[in-house]
Amino acid sequence: MMDLKEAMENRHSVRRYVGKDVEPEKKEAIASLISEINAETGMHFELHSGEPNPFTGDNRMINVRDYVALLGTKSADLNEKAGYHGERLVLLMTQLGLDSCWIGNLPIMEKTINELKSEYELACIIAFGYGEDHGKPHEGKAMGELCRVDGEMPAWFENGMRYAMLAPTAINQQKFLFTLESDGKVSATFGKGPYSQVDLGIAKLHFELGAGKENFEWA
Fold it and tell me: What is the mean pLDDT of residues 157-180?
């Protein structure tokens, strides 16, 4: 199995699938991590499996049968938490040999929300399965546009940024900024754009995995 850095390097968004069933043991591994995340964070992620054509409202999504709904109690940081912990699932899916896609505004979201109690809010959906291909990388912004460092950039910070730049973002917007503060801590902020808070959570996980959590603290 590839490690997490290899998963970040190799994972790309996939919207077209072949309709092959995901093996029960792989679904069990995903369900186990969902249970762990929900227990750790108070989120309410849900695995939906074997649903026929759940994304019929979007002709870009082909032959999807399985997805995870990223839900949680309404809060200011719900979307960031959904991005951070949802990406943990995406990287596990990649390690398991599966393809995946972050999904925002689709009719299935409204259907899912209507089935929930009022205390939960849906942030995003992650579709997964076996893709027709494994997707392809997209050209992004230069590192200098995505971070601020006074003086020489430490190696651990540069490593963190290398992997943050691989983080998937809505319409490849990369509306995040990492700053090395004068006290050595790292701050991370998001700009204006669709799902930019979700994107920030994803990018923060990538930064942590690249930089090493032992090398810094969040501001």
Answer: 97
Helix (H) or strand (E) holding 29: helix 24-41
* 70 φ, ψ (degrees, to nearest 5): -95, 100
How many angstroms separate the CA atoms of 10 and 135, rounded?
A: 9
Q: How far is CA 140 from the centre of its chain?
A: 17
Q: DSSP E strands: which ranges in the chain?
A: 46-48, 66-73, 99-103, 120-129, 147-148, 176-180, 186-190
pTM for the structure as a whole: 0.94
Residues in Cβ contact with 214 at an 8 Å cutoff, skipping those fewer than 6 apart:
none
Three-class secondary structure of residue 150 per DSSP:
coil
Residue 39 CA to its chain's centroid (Å) = 19
* Length of the chain, in residues: 219
Cβ 49 vs Cβ 66: under 8 Å: yes
Specify the 3-state DSSP secondary structure of 120. Answer: strand
Inform me whether the pLDDT recorded for 188 exceeds 70: yes
Cα 82 to Cα 87: distance, rounded to the nearest angstrom: 8
Distances (CA, A) of 173 to 78, 117, 118, 179: 20, 32, 31, 18
What pLDDT does residue 116 have?
Answer: 63
Specify the pLDDT at position 59: 73
